[in-house]
UniProtKB/TrEMBL annotation:
One of its GO terms (cellular component) is cytoplasm. It comes from Brevibacillus brevis (strain 47 / JCM 6285 / NBRC 100599). CDD domains: HP_PGM_like (cd07067). One of its GO terms (molecular function) is phosphatase activity. This is Histidine phosphatase family protein.
Length: 179
């Protein structure tokens, strides 16, 4: 059995890759380390975006685990051009996984990217892994695990947020554990 914790980053000052955590986000990152106090962790993999790495750094330092950065965990780019209707179009991409906006990445492409890492993790020797990423990518990954997870679930995600994915030989159980 493997346990994979899917963590959405703490509150950040922006969406760009180098966006810092806010003061509140820094407090949340320390709270997240406390949250995991009773949980065994063997490996931590994060999006290389600053806000994701900073989210898990307190836990990594406390456990003396090196944070591995993996570009497969970066946020999904909806469109390469600014869109006033981004919210509606994002909803559309949860209904049509192949929909690809100009300069963007389809949901299916993002799912496949994240799932390639998940496949590697499932074949790995580590049993308790933390993945740190971003709201949309995590929502799509969770949709690929449980098709009932959709756009409205993405809307309910918090910063931070934590889901526990328990993988047995043939089954996967996904449950939100952050409150």
């Amino acid at each position: 059995m493997k346990t994979i914790y899917l963590v959405r980053h703490c509150q950040a000052a922006g969406q760009e890759p180098e966006a810092l955590l806010t003061e509140k986000g820094e407090v949340q990152a320390r709270e997240l380390a406390t949250f995991f106090a009773g949980s065994p962790i063997d490996r931590i993999i994060s999006s290389p975006y600053h806000r994701a790495v900073a989210t898990i750094q307190p836990l990594a330092q406390e456990r003396r685990i090196v944070v591995e950065e993996d570009t497969r965990l970066v946020e999904r780019v909806l469109s390469g051009v600014p869109r006033e209707d981004w919210f509606e179009r994002l909803r559309d991409t949860f209904d049509d996984l192949t929909l690809e906006l100009e300069g963007g990445e389809s949901s299916l492409t993002a799912i496949n990217r994240a799932n390639s890492l998940l496949t590697e993790i499932l074949a790995d020797v580590h049993k308790n892994i933390v993945l740190v990423s971003h709201g949309c990518l995590l929502a799509l990954l969770m949709k690929s695990i449980d098709n009932r997870f959709g756009f409205h679930d993405w809307e309910k995600l918090s910063n931070p947020d934590v889901f526990k994915l328990t993988c047995h030989l043939e089954t996967r159980e996904l449950v939100r554990i952050w409150s």
